[in-house]
Amino acid sequence: ESYQRSPIVHVYQTGTGLRRRLDDPKASDDFPILGELRAEGVTDYLVSPLIFSNGEIHGVTWTTRRSGGFTDDEIAGIDAVVKPLARVAEIWALRRMATTLLNTYVGTHTGERILAGGIRRGHVETIHAVIWLSDMRGFTPLADRLPPRTLVELLNRYFDCQVPDIMEHGGEVLKFIGDGLLAIFPVASDESDAEWVCGEVLAVARTVRAKIAALRGALAIEGLGDVRFGLALHLGEVLYGNIGGGDRLDFTCIGPAVNLAARVEKLTGKLGRTVLASGRFARHCAAELGPVGEFALAGFTALQMVFGLPDEAADPET
Q1: Within a 10 A sphere around the Cβ of 105, how many other Cβ atoms?
Q2: Residue 91, Cβ density class (10 Å: 0-12 exposed, 13-18 middle, ≥19 buried)
Q3: pLDDT (tens digit per residue) in 46-97
Q4: Residue 197: beta bridge partners?
């Protein structure tokens, strides 16, 4: 309400400036904020419209506590800088909007790279990272049974169990693939950093597992169905950068390490496990993970040892 009754809204709606001489006993108190400013000793109050090149109207306020308020020359000086200020403000507003949009849709680190000019197709770099690849179990029958809006809300609640914790611990969410999620946690080349990052990621996995278990209980009470969760963790090198066709690019990561994570994720449902990790990841968390077995994974010639959380009971897909 205080915003709706402010002078700024008046300027937005009319596109014209507004001035109130607050040291004048006859001055109007037509906006609640004027009384507050007068109590602070403000003697003159001016709002100037900042008109952007696309026609949007924003505003800037000027105040003084000097007796007598602004002089005519000062008002003229303010009027003279308003148009150049609008251009500068528009540039900063557009950059802030672009940063917010990129951070929202591609992640903070990726957004920074794009803003810095990393937009050439094929421009990739090799990075060492922990790969987080998760998937919702039972999504297909839910999608067939639930109304679309209810399904979207369920997906949002499900991703809310993962994304905040991933980001809080240095992860970058790269992609939502339907009910799947791909994230990476960059790792420096030294072993000590790999051990620390893997430990952090495993702690996040435990937290997320608990949150999704709680969500599963809530959804059962609400009669929305059963939601299961599968997560693969792997440590390896990925190609991180721009891939696409024509004028449409995607900033993502690819490589054998991502493929292996995808194969391990598929095992979670078959083995009745929530969290499975590759051997390369598990050697940095040996005290917290136990061997599940060796498996032949499509696309890989050698058998792959897979590890899981010892406190996890089998709960296979039906």
Answers
A1: 11
A2: exposed
A3: 999 999 999 999 999 999 999 999 999 999 999 999 999 999 999 999 999 9
A4: none
